[in-house]
Fold these 4 entries.
Entry 1:
Amino acid sequence: MAPETQGAPPVRQLTVLYDADCPLCVHIRHWLLEQHLLVPLRLVPAGSDEARRLYPGLDHAATLREITVVGDSGQLWTGTDAFIVCLWALAEHRPKAEWLATPAGRPFARGAMYTASAWRQAVRTGPGGPSAADTAGEEAEDAQEAACGDHCPPPR
């Protein structure tokens, strides 16, 4: 999962597409900007005109549903992988990111993403915020996605 893999171009910059209508996402954006970076981060509101101009081929509706990170050579990470890549870009958190990318650490990363996703759906303020019907369906989908591969049951 680490961005630097054999044969792949090195990552020199990452663009994080974040939900500007989500208080948690905006808070994390500010936190990221305060960190000592090993890889420069560009933070762009997901679904914005800038995001559409920079990445016309992306599914921009999907970038509003889950964190998306784009590398400067076209690499694409979403969800748990995007979360780990963001930590990998930070000096203080790179060792943690490398552990989270392992089979032993990945369930913890998924758990963090599941928790953030559930909280995010509850507090999202912009258009497309949750309705009761949407929330019930999304919670069921999120629970399925949060399971650890095929060997862990979804959370209840």
Entry 2:
Amino acid sequence: MAGLLFGWYAASPAVRAGDASAGADVFKSECAECHAVKEGRNKKGPSLFGIVGRPSGSIADYSYSDALKQANWTWTADKLHWYLSQPAKTANPGTKMKYDGLTDAKQLDDLLSYLGNVH
């Protein structure tokens, strides 16, 4: 199953367009204050280790908002692109996440490429 998810993800246009190395820098500036990429390390937000392909609200030791627990999403590259390109409170009203969105398309593609490699 993991191989199928990786294969689908690798074929995604958003991933192919992104630079994972540049995405690591975007992560540091946009996400690292609240999220870690180390497995099992939650901060203000949940760990983003293995985020691509993971169901929303599914880390057992993190206290998600009811809005995210009830969203019933799978974090695909397309869903992450949609979610992160707008204010979190617009994408998921009732969320605890305080993020205004990433409007720079290249940075967003780079970030998604990076997150796709964090597993």
Entry 3:
Amino acid sequence: MSAAAQHRRSRGSRLARKLAVVSLGATVLALPVIGATSASAATTTTVTATSLGYANNLDGWIRASLQVMAQHGIPGTYNGIYRNVIRESSGNPYAINNWDSNALAGTPSKGLLQVIDPTFAAYHVSGTSYDPYDPVANITAACNYAAQRYGSIDNVWGAY
């Protein structure tokens, strides 16, 4: 084989290698996008008052919580939730109790219905946020706890 033929073949081989590398590079760059698309399709959305069509205020938070509670068979009424929210936090989703025995033990009560972290975690309702300050998650977990302990949040007339 002549030197010219070898040169042509090596140029052709180099071109083929470059195309293969470019193609592989494009594939590698595309994989995260493909993965992100399928991963995002598999992730669940967290329920909020606005995602369910309610206002982002106490009324909307209670109504959204009642909708989630109904889907999970958790009893409670608007009036029972409202009464307890007003007593516990005056409607402030960021309320925190830093003075009672729970706080002194290192687990202050948080949120609209003043739930401590271990109780929130134990009675968390799937589909809601894992943030105890999230209004819908806080109400729903607290109502789930009250249902297990007292039959319903409607039966709670004091600190629980």
Entry 4:
Amino acid sequence: MNIKRVMIVGTMIVAMSFGGTSWGRTAALASPVAKWSTSTPVADKDALLDALNQSSDEELYESLYEGKSLKDIAAENGGNVDSVINLQVAQLTEQLDLRLANGSITAEQYIAQTAELRELVTESVTTTFG
């Protein structure tokens, strides 16, 4: 399991669940659905673990399974929550860039989604999924 991709998907699910945002409106309109690419790396291998000051994917998974948010995990382990947010914003921006380039979203959708990306990611970092 690639925990970094799990976190990105979780962030996107949280972002898309806000029906009043342009993410919720445009996600249903975007066609075709963007697929995860294994040919381009989502992030450096240990970027998320480094930002959270975690030693392994398993350690991070256990903390998430216990119901801790990424903010909680970073705080407990001397990690840097701002680095986590920046990493996720960069990863999601890369995915939006690909979707725009592939034509699965319009320029207007891209602008609206990137405009609120940092706020949504910041909120998702404090959300527990357990």
